[in-house]
Each structure stands twice: as C-alpha cells, then as structure tokens.
Amino acid sequence: MAGGSAISGLVGARVHRKEDRKILTGTGRYVDDVQERGMLHAHFLRSTVPHARIVSIDVSKALEVEGVVRIFTGADMSAIADDLNFAQPIPGLHSPSYPAIARDVVRFVGEPVAMIVAESRYIAEDAAELIEVEYDELPPVMSTKAAMAEGAPQLFGDVVPGNIVHTDEQLFGDIEAAFAQADHIVTDTLDQHRWACNPMETRGGVATYDRGSGQLTYEASTQTTHTLRFLLAGWVRHPIHQFRVIANNIGGGFGLKFSAYREDVAVCAAAKAIGGTVKWVEDRNEHLIAAGAAREEQLTLEAAVKADGQLLGLRVTMDLDAGAYPINPPATVYTGLVRTTLPGPYRLPAYQFRHNIVATNKASYISLRGPWAVETLVRERLMDKIARTCGISPVEVRRRNLITLADQPTKMITNVTLENVTAAETFEKLVSMIDFDEVRREQEEARARGKLLGFGLGTFIEPAPGTKDFWAAVGFPFGAEPARIRIEIDGKVTVFTPQTPHGQSHETTLSQLVADELGVGFDDVRVVYGDTDATPFSMLGTGGSRAATMASGAVVYGSRELKKRVLDIASHLLEANVDDLQIVDGVISVKGAPGAQVPLAQIAMGCWLAPEQMPPGTNTELEYVASYDGEGGGFSQASHACWVEIDQETGDVEVKRFLVVEDCGKMINPAIVDGQVIGGVAMGIGGMLLEHSAYSEDGQYLSATFMDYLMPTAPEIPDIEIEHLEYESDKVIGSRGVGEGGTVLAPAALLNAIDDALAQAGGGRVTTTPVTPTRVLELLGVIEPD
Amino acid sequence: MNTREITVTVNGRRHTRTVEVRRTLADFLREDLGLTGTHLGCEHGVCGACTVIIDGVTARSCLQLAVQADGAEITTVEGVTLPDGELHPVQEALRDSHAFQCGFCTPGFVMAIYGMCEEKKAGKPVPCSRAELREELSGNICRCSGYQQIIDGAEAALAAAKEA
Ligand code: FES
Ligand code: FES
C-alpha cells in the first residue's frame, strides 16, 4: 500500500486531550470510586514473616466482629479457586503454581494468609487484627547469591531445583575468536536495586456475581482486560462467556497491571461464593509491600575491543532476582528482552549471554516501564568505560560503533532486522546541540565552588513495537492488533479498541487519526475501551509501547475500509467518480464542485435503516473489524544527555539539565509525546537516585510508606529539553511508541554523568544502585563503605 | 460504634450526617457524600491526591477525621468546576498545558493550584519562579507526568489569576 497517511490537520497537532475534562473535574471512575448496592469490602491479612510453614490459623474471634461476612483462609479459598499457574511450554522453565491465599507455606512478607470480607473496610481491618496465625519460621533467602549457594533453603523443593527458575546460555558469532583478537578486555558490573512501578492508583477490583444470570463481572484496575478475563475465568472456575472484565479510568500501571494477581482471584471467587459484590482496593502500605517490584538484577560484562574502541565481542551474565512467585509474563521474557536488545544500535560481531532467574523470599519481580532497561544501562556505561580505556571520548567511541541509516537494512547479532533505525542520527543531533567547551568550562567553574559537575550521555533503540524477528528472538508472540469501527446512524463514529489506556491518551490520539481519515469532527469520534463485552480481543491490552503503531494502524485501516464503502455509495448518489470525492466535516462532496454533496449522516441512516434502498452492489455494512499486522514493526530511538552537580560534602546529586533527542517517527500529538518522554525520564531519575524497595537481611520489608520509599517530586526533576526528529519511513503507519524509552535511557545518561563527576575527584565508579547521598560519599572516599 | 453528628458545607451545600468518629474526612467525602473526585494515593499524608480546601486553607483530607470538619466549609475538585459544568480557568490552564496523563493525582494538583490562585486573588504572596512553583507543589506526587507540564499549567493559571 502506498506510503503516507491521509493528514487533514489533527494528526501532528497539539490537540487537547479528550480525557482531560473528566480527570480535571473529578468525574472519572477509578476502581475505588465504584459503589454498588450491598457492596462488601475485602481486606487481606498478610504474612509478617518472609518464610514459614503455617502451623495454624484461627479466625474465630475475627468472625465474631459485627459486620464481618466471611473470612477465607488458604484452605477455604482452595475449595473454590484453582491455584494460579503461569507455566508456559518454555524449555527448562520451573514455574511453581500457587494458591490465591497461602495454604501451607508463606514465602515473602506481605503474602496473603487470609481474606476478610466485611460491610466496611474499617471493620475488615479490625477483624484482621483478631486473626491468630502461628508460623513455624524457615530461614529466608534474600539474594540471588544466597539462593544459589550450596545448601541454600529451597523455596519450592523439587519444583524449582536449586531455586533456579530458569538458566540458559546463548552464543552468537565466534566469541572465542573475538576475544583472541582483542587489544583490550574491558569488564564491568552492575548490581541494580529493586524499585517499583508505584502507580498513584494502587491495584484493586470490584467483583459482582449476578445470581440471576450467573454472570461474574470484574471491574479492575488493569492494563489488559482480555488476558485478565481468561486467566481469572479459569482459576475461579467460571465459564468465560459468563465472565466480563471492565476497566474504566486507570490511575497508572507502568507494567504492574499487566499481570493477574492472587488478590484478583480471591476477590472474584469470594464474590461468586457470597453471591454479591466485593470490592478490594489495596492501600499504599500493602502496595509497597506486596504488589511486587522490579529491576533487581546483577550483571557482569566483558568486552573484547580493538585499540581504537571498536567492539569485537561481548560476554554478559545476568542474575535476575525473581522474588518468590511468578507472574505474567514468565521471567524468561525479561531475560529474553535483555539478551536480544543489549547489543543495541551498535555493530557487535560476537556475543554470549548467560542468565539465571532465581527465586528468593521477596514479593514478585514485575514489569516496570521498559522491563529490559538494564541492557541499555549496562551497555551505555560500558561504552564510557571502553572510551576511557582506549583514550577516546564517549562521543567518539559511540560514533565508531554505531549503525547508521546508511548501514541498513542490517541484522543485529541477535538476529533482529534493523531498518529505519535512527539511533545514530539522534546521537549526532544531540552532539550538535552540546557545546563541549562550555561543559568543560562549567566543570572547572563548579570545582572552584567545591562542586562536581558531571556530564553523561547515551543512546538506544526501543522495541516499540519491535519487529517480528525481535519478538521471535525474545520468545514472545508479536500479535496483530484489531479495532472495530462503526459509523453510527447519525454519521458519528465509535471506535472499539482492545487498548486499556491508563495515561497514554489513546482516546485522543485514536480520535485524531479516525477524524482525519474519515473527514469527521474530533468530537464526533468516541473511543470505547476496557470492556471485554465490547472490545475485540487482544492478549496485550496496553503495554510494550505498541499502541502508537499497532492501535493506530488498526483504526487507520478500519477507517479507510469504511470510507471506501461510504464513498462507493456516494459515487452512485452523486454520479461521480470515487476518486473525485472527499469527506470534509462529515459531508461528502465532489472536489471542485461544492454543490454536489451528500452528508455522511444521510448515507449512514440509509445503510442502517434501509440498506435495500442503497445503490445495488454497494457494501452497506458500516461496522468493520480491522486487523493491523504492524507492517513488519520497527523501533523508536533516542539519545540523552545529562548534567549533574554533586555536593562533595552532602553527597547530594542534583540533575541540572537533561536533554533528549528522540525519534518516534510521525508524532500523532506532540504534547502527548512530550508528556511520555518527560514522565519517563523523571521515573528513570527517581529510580536511580531515590526509590528503593528495600528488604532487611532477615527478610523484613523496609520501605512500606512514602516516607521510606521516596518518589521523585517536582523539585527533584529539571525541565527536560526535547528535540524530535520524526524520521519518515515508507510505512503507512510511521508512528512508533514512546512510552517507555525515557525510563530506559535516562538512568544510563544519569549514571554516566555521575561517574564523570566522581572521576574528577578521583572517586570510584558506581557499580551498585541506588545512588543515594551515602553511596556518593562512599565513592568519594568521604565515608567508609559499610 | 462511637458516632457523632456533624454538619459540613461542601461546595456550597450543607450536609448533616452521623459519622463514626474514626472516619476520615476523605472517606466521608468520597463514600458518604459520593464526591469521589478527591482521591487517595497514600492515606498517610505524603502524596497530596486527597487535597481539599477547608475554610480557605488547602489540607489533606486523609489526615483529618470527618468530625474535625464539623462546621467547616470545604471545597473539593467537584466544587471548582463552574456551575454550568465548564472548566475553571485553573482547569483550563492545566488542560492547555497537557499537564496530566492517568489523572489520579490530578484533583490534588487542581486543588493545590486553585488554592494558590485564590491566595493571589486575595493579595497574598504566591510563588513566582518555576523553581518556587516546583517547591510549592512538592507535596503532590505525580507518577506519570514528570511535573513539567503541570508547572507550565500552574504558571499560566497563576499569571491569569488577578487580584480582585
Ligand atoms: S492520600 Fe492524602 S496525602 Fe496521600
Ligand atoms: S497523571 Fe498519573 S499520577 Fe499524575
């Protein structure tokens, strides 16, 4: 199909968001806003110990509390719901199934041991305090190293031998030869800490069982209604055609809300058992303890390089701390993503990647905005280290290795096609915007003030949505994306998407596209999402930064098909050639002959009410399900530069300036792109400097409030400067995802800047995160490492 | 159950209700009055999502009990919206700047910025620079936006708010 989408003005403009009226006036419907008649409230009693056998659980006193309706222990729950099982036919994957409420053993602080259903949340929490649980404590395993050690306590016995959920090694190219030819071998390590998605709306759901119809409805805070539906229907043993999942406003997800959780199972099963409505919304404390966290990974790298900085080969090992229980997707998807993406936009002739996914006594390892991000972090830090080793600049080392547009199409060593990838071009643009002499002057000036000014940069590619061979290499399906479009009886348009937007503004962007394609007003398009009774199936919902390409493609192709049908009818009515017709503001007219016109509404009414009276041989179906295959997919790319100032007395790191050059192809709404980039960068900064889902050595959780888990607030984040490239490929849909990249690349540029600052004072290099003031002072030698 | 009768004026409407003394003001507004625009992001006073205006002062409704608000006049996000359903200039400014994404934090920011604009109208000093605005809004957490476009909107709203 010919390139270029039909643009009549909305696409590419900073259109006001449709979502804003609702959210600014407080009229949204988030899960906690749902109030049903006779609604009951669920609260979970959670384990206070990291690893133990449950000896006994006594709920008798709690049951006496007035207003308590029912209490479910693990045994009670197991009678009405199956264990959660995320196993998939992946060779060597040990994926234990587990009950919604712990039955025999608890494996992390925060694991549900009972669910109290009561008339109010206050009563349920009162009752929880009266439940007596006797634990026979087992030694906890609190790191990947401890878990893999000889004689380590086994979390799941033979089900996960040696606590290793999965282990693998993959070889690409001749790695031995690469190291044999090397002038330098550059090594590096990174021990990344756990940090969390922490959407401002926690997890939650409201389950309603309708005894009359037998229908179970779950209104949830989820990123993926259809997957939640089929997983839950199975586990709560409910026929799927009688199970509906709804999502209205969702207060952020960042990957967390992609999985189904044991609490979802328990709440749905309870609603069915009780025969009514049960609401569960976790509080922040529960969320921080039990919802899971991300990014806890240890990597070692060994690079074979030529004297001039040219990369010859790379050996990587990765240990991923999976926590106790698997969620969706299987952790092999994360290691697959890291392995496949790690070479990035650089030429790499040989590569070896080994990983261990390891079970520990912590909450689950979950997806967090760019779950593969550590690949960019370690690669971009390694590039800087190679530059130092070879005595060239960080800019030069990248230039010597980057794949430019002129080199494409080509393949990554991990068998992924690179085409239209402009990482090198974003990098050159970034470099052209920086006055390096000025940076050096500022650094001297800062040192004169007793401060250290660090400068760092980095570049990357983002599989948003990725290519078919990319997902094949990862081991995850790259599905097509559907959309159903209906021209209503009055000529207005309803779009049904399987996307489950939770901040990504799809109501706006998809309306822009459809309005432009069909020649109708922006306000005449409504986007319906988040209802498995209404929207076409997709496994993914909103995740993986797919929508900009995939959902856009589905609605564009769908609109074009309906437009074709309408114009065909109009050509008969107006006795004109289809090619001479246009739709403007909902009116079909002959180009250059404004008198000859027919309103879209008139055709729509005819098609719906009296199709037999429409011109013979025309297609009068004005509802169409389109499916878009992504045209082979592709990548987003960006380069970041970061300036930090370090206070040598306090160890404080201040991000002074942050510059982004990004290329997500054709922007549908630049204001929304900016928002995604800025929000992503802020999350990356917060994750590296402030946030920490910390455990004590004996397995207690240490960051259970926002006083301990520090979220970035406005003063910690600088204004982010953004430059867009908008490289135009020959694809019909030239837009690429941009939701995750900020969080993926920002940590790399930031840590490179911190290292640059520390080096000026003879300090050490960051190898462990988060980079707290204490860590900085340790690296500067001001205080002793503890 | 320990209960008390309270009378509270919310967004210009008087409500007399019997509440449990331990009931938070946020739960009272959200569940008893159905004003679910006020959100709960932490319930321990850090995130600011629950910000409302009590007798002219911005406050966190998760940290107060409903009984403490007896006799008070409260404005919530629902009360900021103009009577004809049109956006208040503060809301307009935040829409124009594309300030928000998921919207969960939004009512808290709207109230905090609305509060600043009201102060300015009353002739009180308000933050001028972006850095000051960032400090002033540091009690509100937004996970999505990275704050920049919120600060843009707050700047515009404050510039438009004129001393009466
Ligand atoms: S909910 Fe009140 S401050 Fe967070
Ligand atoms: S817009 Fe999502 S938390 Fe602020």
Automatic annotation (TrEMBL), chain A:
<dbReference type="InterPro" id="IPR000674">
    <property type="entry name" value="Ald_Oxase/Xan_DH_a/b"/>
</dbReference>
<dbReference type="InterPro" id="IPR036856">
    <property type="entry name" value="Ald_Oxase/Xan_DH_a/b_sf"/>
</dbReference>
<dbReference type="GO" id="GO:0016491">
    <property type="term" value="F:oxidoreductase activity"/>
</dbReference>
<dbReference type="InterPro" id="IPR016208">
    <property type="entry name" value="Ald_Oxase/xanthine_DH-like"/>
</dbReference>
<dbReference type="InterPro" id="IPR008274">
    <property type="entry name" value="AldOxase/xan_DH_MoCoBD1"/>
</dbReference>
<keyword id="KW-0560">Oxidoreductase</keyword>
<dbReference type="InterPro" id="IPR046867">
    <property type="entry name" value="AldOxase/xan_DH_MoCoBD2"/>
</dbReference>
<keyword id="KW-0500">Molybdenum</keyword>
<dbReference type="Pfam" id="PF02738">
    <property type="entry name" value="MoCoBD_1"/>
</dbReference>
<dbReference type="InterPro" id="IPR037165">
    <property type="entry name" value="AldOxase/xan_DH_Mopterin-bd_sf"/>
</dbReference>
<feature type="domain" description="Aldehyde oxidase/xanthine dehydrogenase a/b hammerhead">
    <location>
        <begin position="25"/>
        <end position="139"/>
    </location>
</feature>
<dbReference type="Pfam" id="PF01315">
    <property type="entry name" value="Ald_Xan_dh_C"/>
</dbReference>
<dbReference type="GO" id="GO:0005506">
    <property type="term" value="F:iron ion binding"/>
</dbReference>
<dbReference type="Pfam" id="PF20256">
    <property type="entry name" value="MoCoBD_2"/>
</dbReference>
<protein>
    <submittedName>
        <fullName>Carbon-monoxide dehydrogenase large subunit</fullName>
    </submittedName>
</protein>
TrEMBL record, chain B:
<comment type="pathway">
    <text>Alkaloid degradation; nicotine degradation.</text>
</comment>
<keyword id="KW-0408">Iron</keyword>
<keyword id="KW-0560">Oxidoreductase</keyword>
<dbReference type="GO" id="GO:0016903">
    <property type="term" value="F:oxidoreductase activity, acting on the aldehyde or oxo group of donors"/>
</dbReference>
<dbReference type="InterPro" id="IPR002888">
    <property type="entry name" value="2Fe-2S-bd"/>
</dbReference>
<dbReference type="InterPro" id="IPR006058">
    <property type="entry name" value="2Fe2S_fd_BS"/>
</dbReference>
<dbReference type="InterPro" id="IPR036884">
    <property type="entry name" value="2Fe-2S-bd_dom_sf"/>
</dbReference>
<dbReference type="Pfam" id="PF01799">
    <property type="entry name" value="Fer2_2"/>
</dbReference>
<dbReference type="InterPro" id="IPR012675">
    <property type="entry name" value="Beta-grasp_dom_sf"/>
</dbReference>
<feature type="domain" description="2Fe-2S ferredoxin-type">
    <location>
        <begin position="4"/>
        <end position="80"/>
    </location>
</feature>
<dbReference type="Pfam" id="PF00111">
    <property type="entry name" value="Fer2"/>
</dbReference>
<dbReference type="InterPro" id="IPR001041">
    <property type="entry name" value="2Fe-2S_ferredoxin-type"/>
</dbReference>
<protein>
    <submittedName>
        <fullName>Carbon-monoxide dehydrogenase small subunit</fullName>
    </submittedName>
</protein>
<dbReference type="GO" id="GO:0051537">
    <property type="term" value="F:2 iron, 2 sulfur cluster binding"/>
</dbReference>
<dbReference type="InterPro" id="IPR052914">
    <property type="entry name" value="Aldehyde_Oxdr_Iron-Sulfur"/>
</dbReference>
<keyword id="KW-0001">2Fe-2S</keyword>
<dbReference type="GO" id="GO:0046872">
    <property type="term" value="F:metal ion binding"/>
</dbReference>
<keyword id="KW-0411">Iron-sulfur</keyword>
<keyword id="KW-0479">Metal-binding</keyword>
<dbReference type="InterPro" id="IPR036010">
    <property type="entry name" value="2Fe-2S_ferredoxin-like_sf"/>
</dbReference>
